[in-house]
Amino acid sequence: MRKTALLLLTLLGLGVMLWAQQPAGFKGTRTITLSEQAKVGTQVLAAGEYRVTHVMEGAEHIMVFKQGKQEYRVKCNLVPLSAKADNTQVWYEPDANGARMLQAIVFRGDTVRHEMAQ
């Protein structure tokens, strides 16, 4: 009986450790529409609709923007929100040359803000 209880506690502990290491970003693919072209990292995305996927490469969070056969990848940092987002929001800032740079995205229903690495 004691061995069984010890085994169950060990398995429970391992399960919690594995769960805690899961990425905090969304799973699956989301869609976003850019009304104007915007820079994402060092890449320029044309205006239009993109499929966005959050992936992990080792310990790095990567946002993958796809439009047709084009694919754009940029590192991102996750910032926790205090509650689930009610709406999808996109933040832009001008760069040194005045070009629009995508700074962050929050997707409806998410609990994190995806801040793009510049």
Could you name the key traits of this structure?
9 strands; 118 residues; 16% helix; two-stranded antiparallel ribbon; 7-stranded antiparallel sheet; alpha+beta
Structure description:
- The protein is an alpha+beta fold and about 120 residues long.
- It has one domain (about 25-115).
- Helices cover about 15% and strands about 50% of the residues.
- The chain contains one helix and nine strands.
- Strands 1-4-5-6-9-8-7 form a seven-stranded antiparallel β-sheet, with no helix packed on it.
- β7 and β8 (about 100-105) form a beta hairpin.
- The longest helix has 19 residues, at about 1-20.
- It starts with a helix and ends with a strand.
- About 15% of the residues are buried.
- The model is unreliable at about 15-25 (pLDDT under 50).
Report the mean per-residue pLDDT as an integer: 84
SSE topology string: HEEEEEEEEE
> Order of strands across the widest beta sheet?
1-4-5-6-9-8-7
Q: What's the count of strands?
A: 9
Q: How many separate domains? A: 1
**Tally of individual helices:** 1
Helix-strand makeup class = alpha+beta
Helix content: 10-25%
Any low-confidence stretches, pLDDT <50, length ≥5?
14-23
User: Main β-sheet, in a few words?
Assistant: 7 strands, antiparallel
Principal-axes geometry comes out as elongated
C-alpha Rg, in Å? 19 Å
Beta-strand residue percentage = over 45%
